[in-house]
Amino acid sequence: MSSKKIIIFGLIIYGLILFQSSFLVPFVSLRRLPSLAIIFVLFLNIREKPSEGTASILSFFTGLLLDAFSSGPFGLFALIFLTISVIIKFFLGKYIRWEMNKGLILLK
Amino acid sequence: MTKSGFQFSKLPRGAKTVLLLLALATVLLAINRFGLDGGIKNVFFSVSAPLQTTLWEQGQKANFLWETVWEIDRMKGENERLERKNQELNAEIARIRNLETENEALRKALNLELEKDFQLLMADAVSQDFFSDAILINRGSINGVVVGSTVLTPEKVLVGSVQEVFPNFSRVGLLSDKKSSVSAQVQTENEEITGVARGRGNFEIVFDLVPQDKKIQVGDRLATTTLGNVFPKGLLIGEITRVDYSDVRPFQTAQVKPALNIDNLKILFVVTSLKQAR
Q1: Which chain B residue's Cα is nearest to A75?
Q2: CA gap B156, B137 in Å, rounded
C-alpha cells in the first residue's frame, strides 16, 4: 500500500469531483454525464491486485468527498463505496487471476 | 507463556474487513448523530470553494465558446434552410410576375376590345428561329391552332401567321420573314393607300406596290387589309421610315419599321376564328 499513490489518486479524484461539480455544470449536454470520480475509482478497483488495499481506501475517500458535496447523511456514500470495493476485490481474488503481462484472466 | 484474549491480527481477513466496516460505520453514525457532519462539510466547502469558483467561471467561458461554435453550426443550417426558402419565394415571385404579365396582356386585350372582333387563344413565345424570322409558341393543334392562323400581340400588332403546327407547339412566321407578304394600307387624311407589305428578313419590312400617284409620308402607320382574305383588317404592321420614289419604276416603295418588338415579345394571341366580317 503506497501512501504516495493514495495521495496522487486522491487528488485526481478530488479534482474530478470539483471539475464535474463546477466546470462542467454550464455545459447542458454534459449534465447527464456519469460521475467521473466513481468511474475512476471503479477502474482502480478492477486494475488493482485483490491483495492490495489502496483502491479500497480511495473508494472510501471518494465516498467521503461525495458525501461532503451531497445533502444525504454524511458517510453513506463512503460506506457504500467501501463495501462495493470489498465485494469487487473478493470476486477478483476468488474468480479472476491477475497477471502482470496478460492483465486479468478469468479462472475456470 | 502465551498471551490469551482478543488479537485483531490473528483474525481471518474477511472478519477483519467486516470489523473495519462496522467500526467506520459506527464512527460515521456518531458524526451524524452528534451533528458534526455540518462542520466537516463546511471544511470541505471552504477548501473547495475558491477552486470551484474559478472552475465555474472557466466552465462558463468554455461553454460560451462551445455554444458560439455550436451556434455557428446551427446558423449555417438555418442559413441553408433560409436560402432554400428564398429560392422557393423567388420562384413564387417569378410565377406571380408571370401571372401579372399575363393579366396585363389580357387587360390590354380587353381595352382594345380584341375579344369583340376575334376569338383568341393566348400563347407564350417560347423561342426564336435561328435561320428565319419565325418564333415558336406554346400552343398547337390540340389547342385548336391551324396553319395560317393569325398571331397578334395584345396591342393589336400583327406578329405573323402560323406556318407549321405541332400537337403542343406552333411555328409562327413573322411578317418580316422573306416568305411573308400581306396586303396592307396606309390610312391618310383623304384616302387609303393600299400596297403589299413584304418581309425582307432580319426583321425588315418593305411596303411595296404602292402606285406612283399616291403620296405616302414618313411616319404613316401601316395596317392590314382584308384583301387576300389572309389577315383581319386593321392590325398594325409598322411605321413608314423612308419612302423610295423613282420615276423609272411603276410603283414606289417604302421602308417600314415593324411595330413588333421581338425583344419584348412574350404574350401573344392566336386568332382561332374571326367574329368580324373579313
Answers
A1: B28
A2: 17
Q: Which domains does chain B have, with CATH numbers?
A: 16-111 (no CATH), 114-274 (2.40.10.350)
Cα A10 to its chain centre, rounded Å, is 10
Interface residues on B facing A, Cβ-Cβ cutoff 8 A: 17, 21, 24-25, 27-29, 31-32, 37, 40-41, 44-45, 48, 51-53, 55-56, 58-60, 62-63, 66
DSSP A28: G
Alpha carbon of B34: minimum distance to chain A alpha carbons (Å): 12
Q: Which residue has the cell 472478519?
A: B15
Residues of A in contact with B69 (CB under 8 A): none
Compare CB distances from A25 to B17, B29, B56 and report the shortest one's residue. Answer: B56
Collect all residues of chain B within an 8 Å Cβ-Cβ radius of residue A25. 56, 59
Question: H or E element: which one contains A104?
Answer: strand A103-106
With contact defined as beta carbons under 8 Å apart, do B123 and B140 qualify? no
This model of the complex carries an ipTM of 0.76
Mean pLDDT per 10-residue run, chain B (278 residues)? 62 75 85 84 83 86 86 89 91 85 76 70 81 84 88 87 87 87 82 86 86 83 79 85 81 88 80 61
- Interface probe for A, chosen from B52, B53, B58, B68 (most Cβ of A below 10 Å), is B52
B119: cell is 376569338
Q: Which residue of A has its CA nearest to B26?
A: A75
